Amino acid sequence: MSENIIELKNIKKVFDDTAVVENFNLTVKKGEFVTFLGPSGCGKTTTLRMIAGFEFPTEGEILLNGEDISRIPPNLRPINTVFQRYALFPHLNVYENVAFGLNLKKLPKPVIAEKVRRVLEVVDLEGFEKRKISTLSGGQQQRIAIARAIVNEPDILLLDEPLGALDLKMRQEMQLELKSMHERLGITFIYVTHDQEEALTMSDKVVVMSDGMIQQIGTPEEIYNEPKNAFVADFIGESNIFEGRMAASMTVEFCRTQFPCVDNVPKDTRVDVVVRPEDVLITEPGKGQLTGVVDSVVFKGMYYEITALCGENEIVIQSTRSAQTGSTIGMRIDPDGIHVMPAGVLMNVFDGTITKDGRAAFAGGEYACDLTQLYEGSHRSGECSVITPDGEEISLAGMEVTVEVPVKAVSMSDEPREYRANGNIISFIYKGSHYNYTVRTADEEDFVLDEDDLWNEGDHVSLMIPEDQIILKRKQGAV
Amino acid sequence: MMNIRFSRKQLCIPYALFLICFVVLPLAVIVYYAFTDGSGRFTLENLLSFFSNGNTIGTLCYSLVIAAVVTAVCLLVAYPVAYVLARSGLKRGPVILMLFILPMWINFTLRVTALKEILTVLEGNLSLHPFLNTVIAMTYDYLPFMILPLYTTLLQLDESLLEAASDLGAGPAAVFFRVTLPLSMPGIVSGITMTFLPAMTNYVILDMIYNSTYIMGSLIGSYFNIYDWNNGSMISLILFAVICIVTLITGRGDRNNAENRGAIL
């Protein structure tokens, strides 16, 4: 059972000059239950549609049992799909819907009838053959959609957020049913969802996606316990994310405290540290590694969610014991509760040019900057020219440069101003003491920046950068 | 300020008056004339004479044939047009649709006169091809009425249904015949209703292109022109019955797809 049924190699899909899926590499073993998990717009549905054949990849190949199928139309692929909103044929009854694929294969009538009867038994809808689709409830339509797909005995069953339209109770029931169906049928399932609980409950393998790229592939346990980066940690379950630094190879420093950890990362590396709320243990004040003041306590049924302030950092704790708001507590984090991962972006890097009035134009904005950095020891002589130490005057207008802006230097404002780059917030992560935002401009450049205040996803903002924080470098080969 | 409130019943009054004056009363008058003779006595003579006269029966059959041919040609021309405009994602789709609809904005007489001139240039003597000219002129006139409902239905067609069909193994032809076509039935029925019925009666077009073809409309017109209101009314009534039957038949086909109603009519 260990042979690969489908392989996606270097898949890239471009719509209107925007890459919606990039660098996608995945192998799926026969009989596996694989889930693509990610926020909306992360490219998971597009990837599924490429496997189904509704879209062809711009680059890369899809191998099914070793054969490239990336250019084959959907009707010739041994793959069936359960659509998000079921897509049952309204002009056909339940029997005709389920028999649709079998009829096209020109199977003998009694064989079709027998197969339909059996599959309706599998989805628990015996006796519904003559019913009109419009008389079925959402859950029943869902089952018919599954029956219509699996009756064809596909090599792979694709499910595109199949439970999205159902209410919570029905959804949980269907999750278990799908899982047991998967075990009974032995068909490979590829499942798309934005619901992390659904993904963790059902899958053998989870593919976490964001912004068209795979962030992590792993079993549900790996994804939860060993998130590869801050995005995965933030997306899967609750987590405290801190910015830190390695104090020694097995010691990490965050919240102004050094903690022993199990990750062997070179000293002085900047890192993101993820701590799950249930891994923070409350101790007597002074007896833990950290000391904080309880800011809020919320009863959640199974546990209390306690928020403590420790310096400028906020720490969320899940504990079965309550705490008094305003009281001082100690906190301890064991080494295996500390997950160290490479730091996110620290520096924004753009291609830019120098304008006639001596500004740096990049990412749709123009910013005043220190031009003398381009030639060591030079001083400014005009609006956009410098004099080198040798006394040579160089005009910089139109020069192509690399612009670097530290994450900490950028700030946001909701008033657009002339010269400023504008964009929308596409994502953010809370990092204990501040939020880490990604702002995408109209020409698809991303700014990463830190802010103390909470903004909303989708907010339109303009970006401010102090003059002395913009680092300019000459491009190699440029004048 | 005075607060004037109308109940729903009161709001219906103008429409009820309109319907009584322009639908119910004229129909009653037609029925009255159809079953009386010149001096106002009740008679079934008009009915009997229609069915005993080979000419009138022939005209009825011929009208049905013409209407059927015109409708079929309209459907064959309009379906691909509507399909391309609605489903191929043409950027200029709505503009092209507008071009097809545009003739409806031009005066009917002018339109037919223009067509007549074109046909004369192409054929010379128009009276040589009466049937062909009838079909051409009527198709030209009724095409927008076929395109519009088809376009509306095809536009609303859920793309995921077509994808589902192809996912289940249907090639392009099977997708069309098993999903697209059945789901566009409401539009087809609307289009047929809006083309077939006028095509049986509109003799003005034929008159204008000097056509000797005689259809039901011409027959009724000829009776009224000689002030034989009784026979004219009876023929109108018979035509009315034929139209009722046609509507019932197409209506039944439509009801089978009642869930997908959405075409304009």
Question: Which features does this protein show?
Answer:
heterodimer, A: alpha+beta, Rossmann fold, OB fold (Dihydrolipoamide Acetyltransferase, E2P), 3 domains, six-stranded mixed beta sheet, five-stranded antiparallel beta sheet, 8 helices, B: 265 residues, mainly alpha, 0% strand
Explain the overall architecture:
The complex is a heterodimer of chains A (479) and B (265). Chain A has 479 residues and is of the alpha+beta class. Chain A has three domains: 4-225, P-loop containing nucleotide triphosphate hydrolases (Rossmann fold); 239-342, Nucleic acid-binding proteins (OB fold (Dihydrolipoamide Acetyltransferase, E2P)); 347-474, Nucleic acid-binding proteins (OB fold (Dihydrolipoamide Acetyltransferase, E2P)), CATH 2.40.50. Chain A is 18% helix and 40% strand. Chain A contains eight helices and 33 strands. In chain A, helix 2 (94-104) crosses helix 3 (109-122), helix 2 (94-104) packs parallel to helix 4 (138-150) and helix 3 (109-122) packs across helix 4. Chain B starts with 7 loop residues before the first helix and ends in a 10-residue tail after the last helix. Chain B has one domain: MetI-like (MetI-like fold, Orthogonal Bundle). The A-B interface holds A 52-54, 73-75, 79-81, 83-85, 87-91, 100-101, 104-105, 132, 134, 148-149, 152 and B 158, 160-161, 163-171, 174, 178-179, 182-183, 185, 257, 259-260.
Mean pLDDT of chain A: 89
Query: What portion of the residues of chain A fall into strands of 2 or more residues?
Result: 35-45%
Provide the residue-averaged pLDDT of chain B: 85
User: What is the CATH level 1 assignment of chain B?
Assistant: Mainly Alpha
Number of E-state strands of chain A: 33
Helix content of chain B: over 70%
Q: Could you tell me which chain pair has the largest interface and how many residues each side has?
A: A-B, 26 and 21 residues
N-to-C span of chain B? 41 Å
CATH superfamily of chain B: MetI-like
Strands of chain B, total number: 0
The low-pLDDT segments of chain B are 257-265
> In terms of structural class, how would the helical and strand content of chain A be classed?
alpha+beta
String of helices and strands of chain B: HHHHHHHHHHHH
Would you tell me the structural class of the helices and strands of chain B?
mainly alpha
Helical residues, percent of chain A: 10-25%
* CATH architecture term of the largest domain in chain A: 3-Layer(aba) Sandwich
- Text of the CATH class of the largest domain in chain A: Alpha Beta
Can you summarize the main beta sheet of chain B?
A: none
Q: What is the count of structural domains of chain A?
A: 3
